[in-house]
Write the structure tokens for this entry.
Amino acid sequence: MDEKGVRFSVFCDLDGKVTQVIKDDDHFLPQTVIGSLIFSIVVPSDLDKIINFFLELKSKSTAIGWEINIATDCGAETFLFFGGVFNNQIGIAAATSKNGAQKLFNDFTRINNEQVNIIRTLSKENERLMSELDETPVSFYEELSKLNNDLVNMQRELAKKNRELDELNKLKNQFLGMAAHDLRSPLGIIMGYSEFLHEETANIISDEHKNMLNQIMKSSEFMLNLLNNLLDVSAIESGNLNLNLAKTDVVNLIKRNVELNNTIASKKQIIIRFIQHTEIPLILIDSEKIEQALNNLISNAIKYSPQKTEVTVLVTKNPKDVTISVKDNGQGIPEHEIEKLFKPFERTSVKSTGGEKSTGLGLSIVKKLIQGHRGKIWVESKVGEGSTFSFSLPIE
């Protein structure tokens, strides 16, 4: 090995995050060093030194000849650190020999030749300050170093807790998915048998028994919808929202959905109107997921609208996206409750007009589905005048 020893030089931001590797001929630095804190390569026992090295850099714009131990495959090895502040970033040169570190530090001054005179002035000032440091009380610096050590320890503990919370959240989603999946099949059987009995015994059983069967059907349908929503939430939160993207005629998709919901709307004498002002191009979407989102918004509009009113579905094209809106003439939502709408299990004071039940998960799932398509969703509402739910989908 030559007299300059192992050496490297980097640029960091003012917080110590490596932004650029200038020199590393011996491939000493890890490949992941860019974007990481320079502190990560220092042995734990010398964290206080590297922190004080940075404190001196920030206060004096230069720091020269700091001996700091770095973790290597063969154990701790001492490097001499030279540093300077260059245009709101920090240049650090380090080597196992003084000559090597000094040589790299000189390279920084050549790279930043407009700073040469400033660095020389700061170096002389640093020598003067270093000579005066022996007469300066160090209690302040010791206390600052201690506080920085405490901060580093707190950050490590916070990172550990965040990892633990992430693992617990994954386990929760896994359990939720398994439970919902196992319950869905028997509930489907209950609903199917109750529908069969209702149809086959309509002219045989009493009105009281018919009412019981109706309650079984409605309750099992509600529970089945809840389980399906829980499975959607579990898949989305676990990062398993897989989109089957394809160029889709969104106008035909909307028309099909409007037609399907007209059957439900007719029970409350509600008319669903579809309006298209301009030609809409094919867009890249998962048609099933967007149909799920649109169906939720239309069914909600029916659910919270009084009888003999209208629900309007409007599609428009902007330069960068397609916007789909569902407008009702219902009760409207109080302004202070709008922020609850897209949160799981949150409910507003607005009640359905036909006694329909809600799981409290639909809109939160819709939001995740739209965001998964790089789209946006929002609502405009006024009490007594109705609500308009809109979402946009990018054209490209």
Remarks:
- Residues 139-200 form the longest helix (62 residues).
- The chain has a mean pLDDT of 80.
